[in-house]
Amino acid sequence: MGDVSHTSLSPLPSSDRADVAARLRDALLGASFTADGLLDLLGAPAYAALARSETVPALRATRGDTPLETLVRLFLLQQPVPHARVADVLPVQDCLESGWLTRAGADEVAATVDIRPYGGPGGEDWFIVSDLGCAVGGAGGIGSREEGVVLGVGGASTTLAGITVRTPVSSALDLGTGSGIQALHAAQHATRVTATDLNPRALHITALTLALSGAPAADLREGSLFEPIADDETYDLIVSNPPFVISPGARLTYRDGGMGGDDLCRTLVQQAGDRLRDGGYAQFLANWQHVEGEEWQDRLRSWVPRGCDAWIVQREVQDVTQYAELWLRDAGDHRDDPAEYQARYDAWLDEFEGRKVKAVGFGWITLRRTAAAEPSITVEEWPHSIEQPLGETVRAHFDRVDYLRASDDAALLDGHFRLVAEVVQEQVGLPGAEDPEHVVLRQHRGMRRATKVDTVGAGFAGVCDGTLSAGRILDAIAQLVGEDPVLLRDRTPAQIRLLVEQGFLEPAE
């Protein structure tokens, strides 16, 4: 892939010079231009400010002339730096010839792209390439309104990376790759990675991200959604952080899908089923409309393709005014002429009013291809805190779906269970009371769920160590509380099923 430019955006470095990318990577690592190195140099406040696109604290922290300070000013703060200083740190002539740097005045050089250190899940030192001034979004806007601008790491990117199931697979597809973050993660556990994007500039930047991070090259294909994928191609893993913003028109390629309402996300989800191999996962971030007279859960259930289990989690809901303001600020429209800002705001509200949309939900959608006669579809709202990474939690959810689907009440009573690690019991009641009003089981990992249980449920969970069957435990509890064991066996499987479904208990087999 040769040089690619888009309108007035900066020309990009050549992606054909793997040798230069390798030397540049070695030089960056040699100067400790890594996530840990930046934190040590800048300190936590300035480091966090960079993630908000605020550069003043970092400028103040890089007034010296050490190699690391030089690189921060060059690639993160996009300041021209004297040629001689850069030559002490980087293979400057190679970088100029291949386009990573450009001359700025008589004796200075400047970066052509933003290079952001990014720590991999196993401690890897990676680098995410993006357009200048577009490493992240934030309240101040992305810094560019060019249609084909390519952003770097943001909250959505890291959220999707964190929830993705990371089992070894033969093939993975990153749909709408952007700067290549998901493809980079997938390359660690997939033999073959395909990355697509409607924006050719994004594909070029993905190639740079992979090369600079020392990752294998991906199969890069230009096109929208599944268009670049042949009809007979299937994958073990599909991930996408799509342009999911519900907007009145496609102004910015990276966020506005160009379809009406939430049609892009719906289409993406519905078409993914036929592209998955048996047992394969498709994982997306998405926005969806809350429409008057319609349950949002029913809307999302209708998206799930045949032959797929689904777990859909709504993490946040914004009313239409909050939503419009968020994305107007993202594009920097709040800095425009007030009349123009008001006109754009009006257009967003007209769009929502015409579709009878009262709010917009944001969350995660995970599909898993299954041969089960009755696929499982779970749609829930969970706005509470979680602990990333959640990939293993997602995988375990579908393992439990399989177990419960194959287990009737008799099988549950014959089964052996363990209380999942990091689950604690809390007793809630008035101070000094002899008995608690209720008992709560709470997870301290993963989804961090909490659920009320009765005294039988609490006693049952407390002794589940995989040794005794559920039925034998209930018989012992019945004897302790003076209850008919047959009646207790009859009414308790529903509670066991719920505790397994929500991840408090796991089968011990």
Helices and strands, with pairings:
Blueprint: H1 18-30, H2 35-42, H3 44-51, H4 56-61, H5 67-76, E1 81-82, H6 83-87, H7 92-98, E2 101-103, E3 108-111, E4 114-119, E5 125-130, H8 155-163, E6 169-175, H9 181-186, E7 190-197, H10 200-212, E8 219-222, E9 235-240, H11 263-272, E10 276-291, H12 296-301, E11 308-319, H13 320-330, H14 338-354, E12 357-369, E13 377-381, H15 391-405, H16 409-414, E14 416-419, E15 423-428, E16 438-443, E17 450-453, H17 455-463, E18 465-469, H18 470-481, H19 485-491, H20 493-501, E19 505-507
Parallel strand pairs: 6-7, 6-9, 7-8, 9-10, 11-13
Antiparallel strand pairs: 1-3, 2-3, 4-5, 10-12, 11-12, 14-18, 14-19, 15-16, 16-17
Helix pairs in contact: 2-3, 13-14, 17-18, 18-19
What are the main properties of this structure?
509 residues; alpha/beta; 8-stranded mixed β-sheet; 20 helices; globular; disordered N terminus
Mean pLDDT comes to 92
Q: Name the helicity range.
A: 25-40%
The largest pleated sheet is described as: 8 strands, mixed
Low-confidence stretches: 1-7, 137-142
> What oligomerization state is this entry in?
single chain
